[in-house]
Every structure is written in structure tokens, then in C-alpha cells.
Write a structure and sequence with these properties.
66 residues, mainly alpha, Helix Hairpins, 80% helix
């Protein structure tokens, strides 16, 4: 996901997307542990998406305070 796509989402949608990505990351880590992971680069992509969402959530939180 691109940052511009994430910025277009509402706060509730961001929370939902974050929970989905965390669940996906858990499943990918589990698959990796039992050597059934098809695309190991997906782990990196999911981690980056989680970081992007958290960054935008923090920006919005700081924007409200200012």
C-alpha cells in the first residue's frame, strides 16, 4: 500500500487495516517457522505497511494536538 492510499482512509478504517495486517503477519511468521512460506518478501512488505499505518496514525494524533 502506498502512503497516499493510507492517508485517504478514515481512522476506523486504519484501525481495521492495522488489525488485518497484524493477523497476516502472525500467519506469515507461523508459515515461515514451519517452512511453508511461499513468498518470504511478503513478510517485509507487511511490516512496512504496518509501519506506514502507524506513522500516519501518529501524524494525525500530533496534528490534533497542535
Amino acid at each position: 500500500m502506498k502512503a497516499s492510499e493510507i492517508r485517504a482512509l478514515s481512522a476506523a478504517e486504519l484501525d481495521e487495516k492495522l488489525q488485518d495486517l497484524k493477523a497476516e503477519l502472525f500467519n506469515l511468521r507461523f508459515q515461515h517457522a514451519i517452512n511453508q512460506l511461499d513468498n518470504p518478501l511478503r513478510l517485509v512488505a507487511v511490516k512496512k505497511d504496518i509501519a506506514r499505518i502507524k506513522t500516519i496514525q501518529r501524524e494525525r494524533q500530533l496534528g490534533k494536538k497542535a
